[in-house]
Amino acid sequence: MQFMIMFITGIAGGILAGMFGVGGGIIIVPVLVLLVGMTQHSASATSLVALLLPVGILGVMEYYRSGRITTEHLWFGLIIALGLFIGAYFGAKIAISLSSDTLRKAFAVFTGIVAFRLWFK
């Protein structure tokens, strides 16, 4: 079940990355905190694992050295990365089909919902 949550999180993050240019902090971290029950530190570090090759290697190394993430978190991040790879393609396809105004409003609604959920967790 966790594999599916991680993979779907990656797909969603990829779609949002393709549509809005975001993923880690907007979808991955909230899902890991709200749905999986990770601490904020573990969720942030796991998100960095998913983004490891392009941007996060030094951050991941520091989190790992400090004991904030485990080998399990590393695997979760890699599964999310697979979903991001696939999801970004579909997110880009969706974004291209929307007007600029619609895309901006969709992003505003989405970030507002995420902010509300995190505030009242």
UniProtKB/TrEMBL annotation:
UniProt subcellular location: Cell membrane; Membrane
Keywords, sorted A to Z: Cell membrane, Membrane, Transmembrane, Transmembrane helix
Tagged with keyword Transmembrane: yes
Ranges in a coiled coil: none
Mode of membrane association: Multi-pass membrane protein
Gene Ontology cellular component list: plasma membrane
Transmembrane segments: 7-36, 42-61, 73-96, 102-120
Pfam families per the UniProt record, alphabetical: TauE (PF01925)
Main location: membrane
Similarity section: Belongs to the 4-toluene sulfonate uptake permease (TSUP) (TC 2.A.102) family.
Protein name: Probable membrane transporter protein
Organism field: Chlorobium phaeobacteroides (strain DSM 266 / SMG 266 / 2430)
